[in-house]
Design a protein that fits this description.
The protein has 277 residues and is of the alpha+beta class. It has two domains: 84 residues, Phosphorylase Kinase, domain 1, CATH 3.30.200.20; 186 residues, Aminoglycoside phosphotransferase (APH), C-terminal lobe (Aminoglycoside 3'-phosphotransferase, Chain: A, domain 2), CATH 3.90.1200.10. The strands form three sheets. It has a five-stranded antiparallel sheet with strand order 1-2-3-5-4, with helices on both faces. The chain has a three-stranded antiparallel sheet with strand order 6-8-9, covered by helices on one side. The radius of gyration is 19 Å and the shape is globular.
């Protein structure tokens, strides 16, 4: 056990001695499973990441509100750079699950949009993907053509109510415990538009046209017209571009061991270009 792990083993929240095991899957954090012999916990370690607009105090506030809304595990301890949550005994989704479990995911998103913001305490972030894209282009010194593309995609958006969204609906942030779904990892939790979460889900799950129609109908009911479809298509492309640029920025500024940010960027640029075509 190294010095940092020894520090984690001495956290004041433990009622009994714990053993620690690394927990993989994180792209920007280092996490462990702590086991005290009776119960397991997730210890999530990482500081603020200003280049990604990630601030841990607001992530924790979102996590607590999501717990109160019945979406996420309980946060039991926080200190600078460390958050301890109850462990979920379940499996994380793959991309196939994102498509096959659509009927279960939409109610989860509706609960997020309807309930989490009402339970949030303290300062809150705002998430607008087109601002994020512009900022990432500068931070990664990426091709400035993406600025004009972002402007064009932004102009296709339509007015929608402001809701509290998750904004990072990758497969690994959904968990199935065999009875219900959980939504985890609230780094990008913020007020914004439901359209981004819907488009983000679709882009990350590589939904086809029929699955997109099912998603929009399930969320909006029978009010899906051509303007809404156009806004969704534009937001889906913006979501894929944001994810590619996120990886480019991460490759410059983070360099998390074991994460191939360049491969991640290439994959999402492929999705972005296909969506734009």
């Amino acid at each position: 056990m190294d010095e940092f792990e020894a520090k984690l083993a001495r956290l004041s929240c433990w009622k009994r001695p714990v053993t620690l095991a690394p927990l993989g899957g994180g792209l920007t954090n280092v996490s462990y499973v702590a086991d005290d012999g009776l119960e397991k916990f997730v210890v999530r370690c990482g500081g603020d990441i200003p280049v990604h607009h990630v601030f841990r105090d607001r992530e924790r506030a979102a996590s607590r509100a999501a717990f109160e809304a019945g979406l996420s595990p309980e946060v039991i301890h926080v200190e600078p750079g460390i958050t301890v949550m109850r462990f979920i005994a379940g499996r994380t989704f793959g991309e196939t699950d994102m498509r096959e479990q659509l009927a279960r995911i939409v109610p989860l998103l509706k609960t997020c949009h309807d309930e989490v913001g009402r339970r949030l305490q303290g300062p809150a972030n705002m998430f607008w993907v087109f601002h994020v894209i512009r900022d990432y282009v500068r931070a990664a010194n990426a091709d400035t053509k993406y600025l004009a593309i972002a402007d064009a995609l932004e102009r296709r958006q339509v007015p929608l109510p402001i809701v509290f969204g998750h904004h990072d609906l990758l497969p690994g942030n959904f968990m199935d415990d065999g009875q219900r779904l959980w939504l985890i990892d609230w780094e990008y939790g913020a007020f914004g538009t439901a359209m981004f979460d819907l488009a983000n889900l679709s882009a990350n799950g590589e939904y086809d046209a029929a699955q997109d129609e099912t998603l929009l109908a399930a969320y909006f009911g029978n009010t899906v017209g051509p303007e809404l479809r156009g806004a969704f298509a534009a937001m889906k492309a913006a979501s894929a571009l944001r994810e590619a640029l996120w990886a480019m920025v991460s490759d410059v500024h983070l360099k998390t061991p074991g994460v191939d940010y360049q491969a991640h960027a290439r994959e999402y640029l492929r999705r972005f270009e296909r969506l734009m075509a």
